[in-house]
Amino acid sequence: MSLPEPKSEPALQPMPEDWQRALAVVAHPDDLEYGCAAAIAAWTDAGKEVTYVLATRGEAGIDTLAPDKCGPLREQEQRASAAVVGVDTVEFLDHKDGVIEYGVALRRDIAAAIRRHRPELVITLNHRDTWGGVYWNTPDHVAVGRATLDAAADAGNRWIFPELTEEGLEPWNGVKWVAVAGSAQPTHAADATAGLERAVRSLLEHRTYIEVLTDEDPETYCRTFLTGNVQAAAERFGGKPAVPFEVFNR
Ligand SMILES: [Zn+2]
Fold it and tell me: What is the model's pTM?
């Protein structure tokens, strides 16, 4: 008797490239560096503009550091880490780390950011309850991911947040795709070859956080983690190391 062959997963499609501006919206400093910085490096190399918006400053992320000390430090690390992959603009929405509430206020803040930056591509992080059914996700990631998927539409509707129009933020209905990083159901991928080395350095900029997280040498830790991730996606992307995304078309 032989076991049935495992069903092979369908190939990942290349990410859309016919866009100029992307906005990445996540909950915490390091959320982008743990997954998609290699893709972002390649996009900024190609002359595309990528902007980061973080719901919090990650001030509750380090047990040994009180939030009033931790927030400014992690903000600084996030700005340095964005610069490594060619991202100059990093904004913080100042929701409270660990207790971000999904709701109208969060949707409004993200819709305002989308109207300010007018992206064609919006990027966010896994909005589902779990990481592939294995690990429970954090409520902050779920809230920000869901609110970002919602806000891509909210930003284009003049009547949902009319106060934004009064502030001079005209509706922007130009978001064509929302790409979710860290999804267990990816549909697309970006080649990570050119950006991988910068992705490692970008994650390494979160040094304070990483030094508390692991006893391993920080660089070895970053390289092992990111290389493992992009290699895992390679088998569905023609053997090329890749950053996978679940893409929702609009
Ligand atoms: Zn996070």
Answer: 0.95
